[in-house]
Amino acid sequence: MDLVTRRQRWLLAVSVLVTAAVMVCLLYLFPMWLTRDSKQEEALRNHLTTAVGAAIPVALSFVGVAKFLLDRAKHRADKFHTAMDRLFNDNADTRADAVRALEQMMSYSPDYRARTLEAFADLLRTRTAALTGNGKRQQLPNDITAILTALRRRRPRRDDPPMNLIGVRLPRAPLHALDLSSAQLADADLRYADLSAANLTGANLDHAMLTGANLTGASLRGTRLTHATLVGATLTGCDLIDAALEHATMTGADLRGLNPGMTAVLTAAQIASATNNPNPEAAEEP
């Protein structure tokens, strides 16, 4: 049983005992404190007994609701732990089913949500090690596809932990419209990946391989791309405000549609090496 559930049951038991003690004091000791007349004491006790009798059904309903909530919490905890165990099963289809179950359970609590996102990141790092970006597009394993689908459908929250995807290998992967803000993607292999409309705000992509990647309309605001390889990448319509692109290789990159102000983060050499130079005059600067 989950530790939180055990604690809740313990608190419920203590509450019942305290309530019983209060009722005893109210019915037998309180009248004695208020009056020394036996008749008045008995009359007061009768009134209190009637009031308590009316309150008991209400109290029992609260106890019933509390028990229901505790039972539901236990059921959810058991379901969550089972899905977590299956997430690292040797069978990809079993892992995919676990991913879909965990996606539904992310709404249970912030703790479940954070642990699920961390588990998804762990699985992406460990299960994509054998993927390569050579040749034709590869069909991703079912569990990886399920994770990417879950990440695309989730609604980001401020308290979501940054995903640790350092060194992840997702060449040619469909990452369209994924929210990877603040993600750790240093040394990631994202060659020819579809990152169009992806949110990479504040992400760390230092030394990442983005050769041929499609970053059309992606948000790279405040993103670190130092020493990244963007050879032949498409950055049409990207938001590059405050991006760090020092020593990034951009030979043949498509920079069409960039706001002239956004090219300020690029060096003249980087702009000149791009296939579609958005600001020819900048390339001529020394």
Automatic annotation (TrEMBL):
Q: According to its UniProt record, what is one Pfam family this protein matches?
A: Pentapeptide
Which SUPFAM superfamilies does this entry report, sorted A to Z? Pentapeptide repeat-like
The residue ranges crossing the membrane are 12-30, 50-70
Which keywords fit this entry according to its UniProt record? Answer: Membrane, Transmembrane, Transmembrane helix
What's the protein called, per UniProt? Answer: Pentapeptide repeat-containing protein
- Organism per entry: Nocardia yunnanensis
